[in-house]
Protein backbone atom coordinates (compact mmCIF):
# COMPACT_ATOMS: atom_id res chain seq x y z
CA UNK A 1 0.00 0.00 0.00
CA UNK A 2 2.70 2.51 0.99
CA UNK A 3 5.70 1.38 -1.04
CA UNK A 4 7.63 4.62 -0.54
CA UNK A 5 7.29 6.90 2.50
CA UNK A 6 8.78 10.39 2.57
CA UNK A 7 9.61 11.81 6.00
CA UNK A 8 10.64 15.47 5.88
CA UNK A 9 12.53 16.32 9.07
CA UNK A 10 13.74 19.40 10.86
CA UNK A 11 14.97 20.02 14.39
CA UNK A 12 11.47 20.37 15.86
CA UNK A 13 10.01 18.28 18.67
CA UNK A 14 7.09 17.39 16.39
CA UNK A 15 9.41 15.82 13.83
CA UNK A 16 11.07 13.72 16.54
CA UNK A 17 7.67 12.55 17.81
CA UNK A 18 6.51 11.68 14.29
CA UNK A 19 9.49 9.32 13.91
CA UNK A 20 7.72 6.63 15.95
CA UNK A 21 4.70 6.69 13.63
CA UNK A 22 7.01 6.59 10.62
CA UNK A 23 8.80 3.52 12.01
CA UNK A 24 5.49 1.72 12.65
CA UNK A 25 4.12 2.38 9.16
CA UNK A 26 7.37 1.57 7.36
CA UNK A 27 7.69 -1.72 9.25
CA UNK A 28 4.05 -2.66 8.76
CA UNK A 29 4.07 -2.05 5.00
CA UNK A 30 7.75 -2.92 4.42
CA UNK A 31 8.14 0.49 2.80
CA UNK A 32 11.11 2.29 1.37
CA UNK A 33 11.89 5.21 3.69
CA UNK A 34 13.31 8.48 2.40
CA UNK A 35 14.37 11.13 4.93
CA UNK A 36 14.41 14.68 3.61
CA UNK A 37 15.77 17.89 5.05
CA UNK A 38 15.08 21.12 3.22
CA UNK A 39 17.27 24.13 3.80
CA UNK A 40 15.75 27.42 2.77
CA UNK A 41 17.88 29.63 0.60
CA UNK A 42 19.42 32.18 2.96
CA UNK A 43 18.03 35.69 2.97
CA UNK A 44 20.45 38.63 2.68
CA UNK A 45 19.95 39.23 6.42
CA UNK A 46 20.89 35.64 7.28
CA UNK A 47 23.96 35.88 5.07
CA UNK A 48 25.14 39.05 6.79
CA UNK A 49 24.48 37.80 10.36
CA UNK A 50 25.54 34.20 9.78
CA UNK A 51 22.28 32.96 11.38
CA UNK A 52 21.40 30.47 8.67
CA UNK A 53 21.42 26.72 9.32
CA UNK A 54 24.81 25.32 8.40
CA UNK A 55 25.20 22.35 6.05
CA UNK A 56 26.97 20.53 8.88
CA UNK A 57 23.92 20.86 11.16
CA UNK A 58 21.62 19.51 8.44
CA UNK A 59 23.99 16.63 7.66
CA UNK A 60 24.16 15.72 11.37
CA UNK A 61 20.35 15.89 11.66
CA UNK A 62 19.92 13.49 8.73
CA UNK A 63 22.67 11.19 10.00
CA UNK A 64 21.07 11.04 13.47
CA UNK A 65 17.66 10.26 11.97
CA UNK A 66 19.14 7.56 9.74
CA UNK A 67 20.86 6.02 12.78
CA UNK A 68 17.61 6.10 14.77
CA UNK A 69 15.84 4.11 12.07
CA UNK A 70 18.74 1.72 11.45
CA UNK A 71 18.65 0.79 15.15
CA UNK A 72 15.15 -0.53 14.40
CA UNK A 73 16.40 -2.41 11.30
CA UNK A 74 14.81 0.15 8.98
CA UNK A 75 17.06 1.23 6.11
CA UNK A 76 16.59 4.90 5.26
CA UNK A 77 17.80 6.92 2.33
CA UNK A 78 18.68 10.55 3.00
CA UNK A 79 18.19 13.59 0.82
CA UNK A 80 19.20 17.16 1.47
CA UNK A 81 17.67 19.83 -0.73
CA UNK A 82 17.67 23.59 -0.83
CA UNK A 83 14.57 25.64 -1.60
CA UNK A 84 11.16 26.60 -0.27
CA UNK A 85 10.27 23.75 2.13
CA UNK A 86 6.66 23.01 1.12
CA UNK A 87 7.34 23.15 -2.61
CA UNK A 88 10.55 21.15 -2.27
CA UNK A 89 8.86 18.45 -0.16
CA UNK A 90 6.12 18.04 -2.76
CA UNK A 91 8.61 18.06 -5.65
CA UNK A 92 10.69 15.34 -3.98
CA UNK A 93 7.56 13.30 -3.22
CA UNK A 94 6.71 13.43 -6.92
CA UNK A 95 10.29 12.65 -8.03
CA UNK A 96 10.64 9.56 -5.82
CA UNK A 97 7.09 8.32 -6.39
CA UNK A 98 6.14 8.65 -2.72
CA UNK A 99 2.90 6.96 -1.71
CA UNK A 100 2.77 8.82 1.62
CA UNK A 101 4.33 11.85 3.28
CA UNK A 102 4.47 11.77 7.07
CA UNK A 103 5.24 14.94 8.98
CA UNK A 104 4.74 16.61 12.33
CA UNK A 105 1.86 19.02 12.75
CA UNK A 106 4.18 21.94 13.37
CA UNK A 107 7.81 22.22 12.51
CA UNK A 108 10.22 25.08 12.45
CA UNK A 109 8.85 26.25 9.11
CA UNK A 110 6.25 28.89 9.78
CA UNK A 111 6.15 31.31 6.89
CA UNK A 112 6.04 35.06 7.17
CA UNK A 113 2.25 34.83 7.04
CA UNK A 114 2.18 32.76 10.22
CA UNK A 115 0.60 29.50 11.31
CA UNK A 116 -2.32 29.65 8.89
CA UNK A 117 0.18 29.33 6.07
CA UNK A 118 2.59 26.84 7.62
CA UNK A 119 4.76 24.45 5.66
CA UNK A 120 2.48 21.61 6.79
CA UNK A 121 -0.62 23.37 5.44
CA UNK A 122 1.07 24.07 2.14
CA UNK A 123 2.23 20.46 1.79
CA UNK A 124 -1.32 19.22 2.43
CA UNK A 125 -2.61 21.49 -0.34
CA UNK A 126 0.15 20.77 -2.88
CA UNK A 127 1.06 17.14 -2.27
CA UNK A 128 0.90 14.59 -5.10
CA UNK A 129 0.11 11.86 -2.53
CA UNK A 130 -1.63 11.41 0.84
CA UNK A 131 -0.14 13.29 3.80
CA UNK A 132 -0.25 11.94 7.34
CA UNK A 133 0.10 14.65 9.97
CA UNK A 134 1.26 13.50 13.40
CA UNK A 135 0.02 15.75 16.22
Automatic annotation (TrEMBL):
Which Pfam families does UniProt cross-reference here? Usp
Q: Which InterPro entries match?
A: Rossmann-like_a/b/a_fold, Universal_stress_UspA, UspA
Q: What are the residue boundaries of the UspA domain, all occurrences included?
A: 1-135
Q: Which residues form a coiled coil?
A: none
Which PANTHER family does the entry mention?
STRESS RESPONSE PROTEIN NHAX, UNIVERSAL STRESS PROTEIN UP12
Family per record: Belongs to the universal stress protein A family.
Spell out the protein name for this chain. Answer: Universal stress protein
Amino acid sequence: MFKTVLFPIDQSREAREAAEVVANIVQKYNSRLVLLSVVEEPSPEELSTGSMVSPEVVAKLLENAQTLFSQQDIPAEILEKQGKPAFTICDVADEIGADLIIMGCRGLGLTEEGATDSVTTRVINLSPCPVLIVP
